[in-house]
Amino acid sequence: MALKIIGAGNGRTGTKSLKLALEHLGYGPTYHMYELFERPEDHKFWQEAIETGSTDWDDALADYQSIVDYPGCAFFKSLYQHFPGSKVILTLRDGDSWYESSRRTIYSASPGFLQRLIITAKLPFNARLRKLLPVFRVIDHGWDDVFEGKFEDRDYAIARYNELNQKVIDAIPPEDLLVLNLGDGWEPLCAFLGVPVPDIPYPRANQRSSFKVNMKDIRHGRIPSFE
């Protein structure tokens, strides 16, 4: 199974909704950051990509037709070059809105915080969560390297977010790139992929309320469902 669709958008730009949409359109399974929690052994591929810029993409993504969210978005160019004929979807939202959503969700539940829970023995008996420590280190790359450890500087983070999006636009030929704004729905996506528009609403997933439930599960030593 060769990768066909590469999501280049950062988290909190509708990536989970895009995952569900692509799977409904027949481009699944779709790899999302949450896959790392289900397949923590995958950390070896992403760690190698962090260190070298690439990895054995065929092995890492053998079971998937598409990928969205982090860490895949950080390696969109390598993936696009590796999989001939693939297309890239850049999900976007307004920079201020993206920052506030990220700050209140994925950043506030950053791996450093989760590791401290484990290290301070607040999750002392959960072997499953302890096995996720390498996954947390991969996710830390997004904050420590991609955002250079300066996410709390609002102006810097938004400027960096805009810069990353522009890099995608500059790197991918227009015929292989769809810029999909939050709320655009099915029509531009289906036109880009050349498939009929479904007669169901476009998915809306990973809302802030459900994210908080997942983080509460982690804090109590339970594996989150990420529904």
Overview of the molecule:
The chain contains twelve helices and five strands. The protein has 227 residues and is an alpha/beta fold. Strands 2-3-1-4-5 form a five-stranded parallel beta sheet, with helices on both faces. The relative contact order is 0.18. Helix 6 crosses helix 10 and helix 7 (111-119) runs antiparallel to helix 9. Helices cover 48% and strands 8% of the residues. The model has no long low-confidence stretch (mean pLDDT 87).
The structural class is: alpha/beta
Which percent range fits the helix content? 40-55%
Count of helical stretches? 12
Choose one word for the global shape: globular
Biggest sheet architecture: 5 strands, parallel
Proportion of beta-strand residues? 5-15%
Parts with pLDDT < 50 across at least 5 consecutive residues: none
Summarize the helix and strand pattern as letters. EHEHHHEHEHHHHHEHH
Instruction: Give the strand order, joined by hyphens, for the main sheet.
Output: 2-3-1-4-5
- The pLDDT mean sits at 87
